Amino acid sequence: MAARVETFVREVVIPYEKDSRRDHHGPTDELVMEMRGKAREAGVLTPHILADGSHLTQGETAIVLRKTGLSPLGPLACNTAAPDEGNMYLLGKVASPEQKSRFLEPLVRGEARSAFFMTEPAEEDGAGSDPSMMRTTCRLDGNHWVINGRKKFITGAQGAKVGIVMAKSDDGACMFLVELPDPAIRIARVLDTIDSSMPGGHAEIDLVDLRVPADQMLGASGEGFKYAQVRLSPARLSHCMRWHGVATRAHEIATDYANRRHAFGKPLVDHEGVGFMLADNLIELKQAELMIDWCAGVLDTGSLATVESSMAKAAVADALFRVADRCVQVMGGNGVSGDTIVEQAFREIRAFRVYDGPTEVHKWSLAKKIKRDWKAAQA
């Protein structure tokens, strides 16, 4: 499957990188659906989910998703992109049969996009990297839940058909499935951000008396944080998989440039400063691949792997950023232009160091574990 995906991305998707059907935030839905139609014909649409609804193992998923990432458009074309991939994983684990039929199946078929409404405005002390600060509320009114609050950096909300909304009841955090658009879910603005690969961009949202039928609650009231961990640990790793593919492609482009371009009497690659940068890329790409595969193996044991996914997210995001940065440097002026995807890879991977938990938050979490383990050892 990975070989078929790689062939499809290289032969069919990469030519779309010059397609004009995109805005500042990402490709248009017209472009996404056209590519998905071709992926469906090629048998590589939603390749991580099998015909019976079961998933590839995380280890197998890593092999496939790295290949979808060889183009920034690849995950969109193959339906392995965030936030849809993580949302499909969560619904597959937690949703009821009725909810799967109504909300999950259109996502798996690639007919709809989704959004995950968790993050809130930091300027209002809302939930960001600390979801316990959630201020969005939900209260039961008859057989409906009424939700009010604000969300921010909600990827793909504009144009999405399925939403997963997190809010806090008296029992604790809750998740709800909603059909989009809904007049009570109002897009205040779509932010201008450094990245440009996500259809719909990243929106700021007002939830004003949103009424959701009780049977559209995902799981049980108060269990939302538990479900969030079911989603977030694999989703962090999936990001690593996809961006590893993009960094690999950027390295391929920089390598080709360094071998073709001559300066001071010889190819750039023969200048130690350039050759060593490419060598460092090769080392860090392999280290990142091994880290991804190790964390995937832990997830495949049935563990939530929160510690392992934090280590992988922090290490891989920073390593891939260094790879992308070196690719820009090797290519000089061409590296900061839009003539290749190297410039976009740099921007996208820089953003990756922030979303799904900034590197520093993951390191802080790991430091707390080190302290806990030390105290336990002393006892």
Describe this structure in words.
The strands form 3 sheets. Strands 2-3-7-6 form a 4-stranded antiparallel beta sheet, with no helix packed on it. With 379 residues, the protein is α+β, with helices and mostly antiparallel strands. The chain has helices spanning 2-13, 29-42, 58-68, 74-78, 84-94, 97-108, 224-260, 272-299, 306-331, 342-352, 359-378, and strands at residues 114-117, 137-141, 144-155, 162-169, 172-179, 185-191, 202-213, 262-263, 266-267. The longest helix has 37 residues, at 224-260. Helix 9 packs antiparallel against helix 10 (342-352). A hairpin with a 2-residue loop joins strand 2 (137-141) and strand 3 (144-155). The protein is built from 11 helices and 9 strands. It folds into 3 domains: 2-81, no CATH class; 115-220, Butyryl-CoA Dehydrogenase, subunit A, domain 2; 225-378, Butyryl-CoA Dehydrogenase, subunit A, domain 3. Keywords: FAD, Flavoprotein, Oxidoreductase. Its cofactor is FAD.
Q: Nutshell version of this structure?
A:
The protein is an alpha+beta fold. Helices cover 49% and strands 16% of the residues. The protein is built from eleven helices and nine strands.
Describe the protein's topology.
Layout: H1 2-13, H2 29-42, H3 58-68, H4 74-78, H5 84-94, H6 97-108, E1 114-117, E2 137-141, E3 144-155, E4 162-169, E5 172-179, E6 185-191, E7 202-213, H7 224-260, E8 262-263, E9 266-267, H8 272-299, H9 306-331, H10 342-352, H11 359-378
Parallel strand pairs: 1-4
Antiparallel strand pairs: 2-3, 3-7, 4-5, 6-7, 8-9
